[in-house]
Amino acid sequence: MPGRRRTLCLGAWCLAVLAPAATLSLCAGTARAATGNQPGGVVLDAWGGLHPFGGFALSTTGAMYQPGWDIARAVAIRDDGSGGWTLDGYGAIHAFGSARPVVSPVWTPGADTARDLAVVSADAQGYADGAAGYVLTADGAIHPWGGAPALSGPTWPGQDVARGLLIHFAGTTPDGAWVLLRDGTIVNIGAAPAMSLHDERVPAVWRHLHANADGTVWALADWGVTIGAGAPGSGPSAPETASWSGYADWGSQDLIRDVHLSGLGAGAVPTATPQPVSPAALTAYRSAYRPAGGVSLDAWGGLHQFGGWPLNKAGASYWYGFAIARALVLREDGAGGWTLDGYGGVHAFGAAPPTPANVSYWPGWDIARDVVITSHDAHGNLDGRQGYVLDGWGGVHPFGGAPSLPAAAYWPGWDIARGLDVHLNDAGVPDGLLVLDAWGGM
Question: Which of 292, 310, 390, 433 is the most exposed place for a label (fewest CB within 10 A)?
């Protein structure tokens, strides 16, 4: 059958690929079938355990598994589920299922320096076959095997810097790559155009850079947190797959080492859903990478950073000479936040999204005293969708669909309430609160 030319757009730029009848090779680091991929995906844990989800059926016969030893670093899967390969920190490549054995181009026993692998060859059915590919080491060097063309870019000898490898193709031939560094920087090599993570802070230790068959590019960080990537300025995207059913992380234990997604080929019906991340994993992630320091709010709305806290203050409300500012909420990444005025107005600044229109508001009456945001986006940052406003009498007013909570205390006609804290259960749902009064009572 004749080849089919397909163009996949990633933000502001596109990849044009010439696909044989049953094969579609992308910048995903592996050759993928145009049709027939299973839905769902596979998680690799730190010990080498493989955990399919979303209905993905995987043969794991002969897979490497080292209980208690954090040595697994990356996984590549045949999307028909017949097998795949895992990479350990020493550089050994372990085939499992019916996948062909691969002799690693770099093996350093006792030195944990291997970080990622990319299989770039496919069989007649369009599934990765292991005949050719690359291993990325921590210094940024890209080591080919099986006749894969050499790819060279910047390296950092002796440093543990590089983390993820994503291959760019001209037709079916690798002609460039992107290397993801641990700090979130993406280095483009050869014909690969510039790319960046769609995130305001990127403070995490990042692990891998992947692309789906539909052109979605995304990155994996500690605790299994994922964000989209693409051409600079192309806007946010999110890693998706046909089904996340059955997906689970390890909560506060940072044990996810790689995630392989399948099922969204070019032209697939857009039924994908965003990745679910447990509240415990998000809490651990946010705690580990929270900026240091803080911000004080003055009576006029001025924002004053201290302790090195990075803050995007663009668009922050300021009432010169008018002492109306009452409370401040910050996004955990320092990319923005919200201020509350005495009338109940909630004002977003920086990259913080605006709150919904149903926030309680008392024009001309200085009675609002505190605001709490309780909802988070897919990356664990406060997003302004839901929360509560406290009035001076102790009334707690939910907005954005936040559940109503019983009043801790209520003093009608007495402006005595000052502070509000909302408790979230393990599912991230508000289930209780504390109110601080002006005398220090809680």
Answer: 292
387 neighbors 411 (Cβ within 8 angstroms): no
Instruction: Give 222's DSSP letter.
Output: G
Cβ contacts of 335 within 8 Å, gap of 6 or more:
200, 201, 312, 350, 351, 352, 381
Phi, psi of 223 (to 5 degrees): 60, 15
d(CA 177, CA 171): 14
State which amino acid sits at residue 185.
T
| Among the listed residues 91, 92, 178, 68, the one whose alpha carbon sits nearest the alpha carbon of residue 138 | 91
pLDDT digits (tens, 9 = 90+) for 389-435: 999 999 999 999 999 998 888 999 999 999 999 999 878 899 999 99
133 touches 120 (CB < 8 A): yes
Helix (H, G, I), strand (E, B) or coil at 385: coil
CA–CA separation, 58 vs 38, rounded Å?
Answer: 10
Q: What residue has token string 């996949």?
A: 8
| Strand ranges for 313-378 from DSSP E | 325-330, 336-341, 346-350, 368-373
163 three-state secondary structure:
strand
Please provide residue 224's backbone torsions phi and psi, each rounded to the nearest 5 degrees: 80, 10
Q: CA 320, CA 299: separation in Å to the nearest integer?
A: 9
Burial letters 240-254, b for 16+ CB under 10 A, else e? bbbbbeebebbbeeb
Burial 65-77 (b: 16+ CB within 10 A, else e): beeeeebbbbbbb
Count of beta carbons in the 10 Å neighbourhood of residue 415: 14
Sign of CA dihedral 236, 237, 239, 245: positive
- Residue 277 is which amino acid? V
Query: In the numeric block, which tokens belong to residue 139?
Result: 């210094």
- What is d(CA 260, CA 1) in angstroms, rounded to the nearest whole number? 30
Nearest Cα neighbor of 419 from 391, 384, 382 is: 391
Residue recorded with tokens 């850079």: 209
Report d(CA 333, CA 291) in Å as an integer.
7
- Reference 27, options 266, 276, 381; nearest CA is 266
Q: What are phi and psi of 215, to 5 degrees?
A: 95, -5
CB 249 within 8 A of CB 67: no
Number of neighbouring beta carbons within 10 Å of residue 295: 16
**pLDDT tens digit sequence for 231-251:** 765 655 667 676 888 999 999
